[in-house]
């Protein structure tokens, strides 16, 4: 996904996905490269949603988690989602995974992207022996400066699109 710099897509896209029911009733994970970003963005989205942080909007960072079983939008660091992959190789609690700031690539980001490609094949029925999607996963890659064609090629030529988000000043 492309969006304009300073478009606030990091807070709007998860809310659009939730409101449209695109997560299949499952949690939406949004990764951030830094702890401070994950916690502050979660607090801001919770405020916009009019809910207490830790209810339908939460966060998970190393040594601190503020989520509940009712959490539907979960901000987290890349490392926390990698940690979840250890116990749940298909990330089955998530209907949508959003990798934000993908241009700030780290080893964890690369592990996540490779894992998400494998998971898409398994959950969406595009890998050999998995013809019928049982529990589809949607993946959104967000960056202000990334080369969308390279990401599209990596994910077997999924079509990138431009998100035109509202600006808030």
Question: What would you say about this model in short?
Answer:
This protein is 36% helix and 20% strand.
How are the secondary structure elements laid out?
Layout: E1 2-3, H1 9-20, E2 27-32, H2 35-49, E3 57-61, E4 64-66, E5 73-77, H3 78-87, E6 94-99, H4 107-123, E7 138-141, H5 148-154, E8 162-163
Parallel strand pairs: 1-8, 2-5, 2-6, 3-5, 6-7
Antiparallel strand pairs: 3-4
Question: Describe it for me?
Answer:
The structure is a single chain. The protein has 169 residues and is of the alpha/beta class. It has one domain (2-154): Rossmann fold (3-Layer(aba) Sandwich), CATH 3.40.50. The chain has five helices and eight strands; from the N terminus they run βαβαβββαβαβαβ. It has a six-stranded mixed sheet, with helices on both faces. It has a two-stranded parallel sheet with strand order 1-8. The protein is globular and about 45 Å long. The model is unreliable at 1-7 and 162-169 (pLDDT under 50).
Q: Do you know the CATH architecture?
A: 3-Layer(aba) Sandwich
**CATH class category name:** Alpha Beta
Spans of 5+ residues with little confidence (pLDDT < 50)?
1-7, 162-169
Spatial separation of the terminal alpha carbons: 22 Å
The helix/strand series, from N terminus to C terminus, equals EHEHEEEHEHEHE
> Considering DSSP H and I runs of 4 or more, what fraction of the residues is helical?
25-40%
Shape: globular
């Amino acid at each position: 996904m492309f969006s304009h710099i300073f478009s606030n897509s990091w807070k709007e896209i998860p809310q659009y996905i939730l409101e449209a029911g695109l997560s299949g009733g499952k949690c939406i994970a949004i990764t951030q490269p830094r702890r401070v970003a994950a916690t502050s963005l979660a607090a801001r989205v919770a405020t916009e949603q009019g809910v207490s942080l830790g209810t339908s909007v939460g966060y998970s960072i190393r040594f601190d988690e503020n989520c509940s079983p009712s959490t539907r939008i979960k901000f987290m660091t890349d490392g926390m989602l990698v940690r979840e992959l250890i116990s749940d190789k298909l990330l089955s609690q998530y209907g949508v995974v959003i990798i934000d700031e993908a241009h700030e690539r780290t080893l964890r980001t690369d592990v996540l992207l490779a894992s998400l490609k494998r998971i898409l094949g398994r959950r969406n029925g595009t890998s050999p022996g998995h013809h019928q999607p049982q529990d589809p996963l949607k993946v959104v890659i967000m960056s202000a400066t990334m080369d969308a064609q390279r990401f599209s090629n990596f994910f077997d030529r999924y079509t990138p699109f431009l998100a035109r988000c509202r600006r808030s000043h």
